[in-house]
Design goal:
Layout lengths: L13 H10 L5 H13 L2 E5 L4 E5 L4 E4 L2 E4 L3 E5 L6 E4 L2 E4 L9 E11 L2 E12 L2 E6 L5 E4 L8 E2 L9 E3 L13 E5 L5 E5 L5 E2 L7 E10 L11 E8 L4 E7 L13 E2 L9 E5 L2 E7 L4 E6 L5 E6 L1 E8 L6 E6 L5 E6 L1 H4 L4 E7 L2 E10 L2 E8 L4 E5 L5 E4 L7 E4 L3
Parallel strand pairs: 2-9
Antiparallel strand pairs: 1-4, 3-7, 5-8, 6-7, 8-9, 10-11, 10-33, 11-12, 13-14, 14-15, 15-16, 17-18, 18-19, 19-20, 21-22, 22-23, 23-24, 25-26, 26-27, 27-28, 29-30, 30-31, 31-32
């Protein structure tokens, strides 16, 4: 047998040795195996590993991280259209607050992950939910609700009510998870009832007021600053004597609140349901008088005339970030009007009103997130319509009786 001058190569042929030397991968033992593995590891195509869907709340800030394997690390792109206010940057779907409530809906597009060794594509679904809880009285007297915690569309919530409910939610500044709303409505026996999304109707009493039409309700406070600063629920209504009546209580840690003290008579002669919201650090009530003019009243001061006139009930809300109070109402021309009061900017003076169009039936609802108000109204088709400063009118359907109640759950 002829011996090779290179020594005993076993099963290696001269051609294999030459090829191995030419490629620079000739090695022996475990070190050679590791070198080959390292070389292979530098050639891995992308695989997207994150979920193919996510949900954003409109009018908030949120993000979703797109994950993918691959060496080198892949970059990301989108095929199709993202909603205005959402961008894909550095592997993250980012929602800016400019994604208004009118952007609620379902969006389909494709996410691509690319590196030098290939492209992986994933069909993606982005669901944008409104952060607003909306309640109406249906044509059968039952309450119907839309809320981000519920399935899409109008959901029946039972009861027999005599007007749209007041919707109240605890302040939730910069919140990306919606808080639980409370719905307060007048029953057919003129007493007030309360429920949440998960707990059914019960009397708001045992100390129950008697009310005509819809109440107003607002929750104030800044927990978790400690037990001395709880959330407070304030409710006002038009009494059977047409005066303004008010009551308040601390929210319990769980379950439904209940009034255990008597109601306060704030006087006046109302011709529609009132509204309530903090303005300039004072709980303020807004009512329509016998001439159609809007008056304000606080717990410590009497009635003041705003010189504005409305049809139906006014609505009010205050942002938790800037403290700007908004007042919305149906003008005598049946259009939506609103004014605002920010003590920092306006020196405790109301600015406006400004017209925002539409053709309303009964009173609107108003909410606020950041520094932008949003409005919900019953249109001439009895459907609920919404708009914000940045997004025009759009219908969210339904059949309402007597107006709309609403509250922001993430602001």
């Amino acid at each position: 047998m002829r011996k090779c001058p290179w020594g005993d190569r076993g099963l290696w042929s001269d051609a294999v040795v030459v090829a191995a030397l030419g490629l620079g991968i000739f090695a022996t033992g475990s070190a050679g195996v590791a070198a080959a593995a390292d070389f292979t590891a530098q050639q891995v195509g992308p695989v997207i590993t994150s979920a193919p869907t996510t949900t954003f709340l409109a009018d908030t800030a949120a993000l979703f991280t797109v994950s993918a394997t691959g060496v080198p690390a892949p970059t990301f792109s989108v095929t199709g259209s993202l909603p205005d206010g959402v961008d894909l940057a550095n592997g993250q779907l980012v929602e800016e607050p400019g994604l208004g409530i009118g952007s609620a809906g379902t969006y389909h597009f494709t996410i691509n992950a690319t590196n030098p060794y290939g492209t992986a594509s994933q069909a993606f679904t982005l669901i944008v939910r409104s952060p607003v809880a909306v309640g109406v009285e249906g044509t059968n007297g039952e309450m119907y609700v839309q809320a981000p915690q519920l399935p899409s569309g109008w959901q029946p919530m039972g009861g027999q009510i005599t007007g749209p409910p007041a919707v109240a939610a605890a302040p939730n500044p910069d919140g990306t998870t919606p808080v639980q709303p409370f719905f307060i409505a007048t029953g057919t026996n003129e007493h007030l009832y309360i429920r949440s999304l998960t707990v059914g109707w019960r009397l708001l009493g045992p100390v129950s007021g008697s009310c005509i039409g819809s109440p107003a309700a607002v929750i104030t406070g800044t927990p978790p600053d400690g037990p001395d600063s709880p959330f407070t629920l304030t409710v006002a209504c038009r009494g059977t004597d047409n005066a303004l009546w008010e009551n308040s209580t601390t929210l319990p840690a769980s379950g439904l609140p209940q009034f255990t003290t008597g109601w306060t008579d704030l006087g006046g002669v109302l011709t529609a349901a009132p509204a309530a919201a903090p303005a300039d650090d004072n709980m303020t009530f807004f009512v329509r008088g016998t001439t159609g003019q809007i008056y304000t009243r606080t717990l410590t001061s009497g009635y003041s005339d705003t010189s504005w006139s409305c049809l139906g009930s006014p609505a009010a809300a205050t942002t938790t970030v800037s403290g700007t109070a908004y007042l919305a109402f149906q003008g005598t021309d049946h259009q939506l009007w609103y004014a605002y009061d920010n003590a920092t900017e306006t020196g405790s003076a109301w600015i406006g009103p400004a017209v925002r169009g539409g053709t309303l039936i009964d009173g609107p609802a108003v909410g606020a997130n950041g520094d932008e108000p949003y409005f919900l109204v019953e249109g001439t088709d009895q459907a609920v319509w919404q708009r914000s400063e940045s997004v025009g009118w759009s219908s969210i359907g339904g059949v309402a009786e007597g107006g709309v109640g609403a509250a922001n759950l993430a602001g």
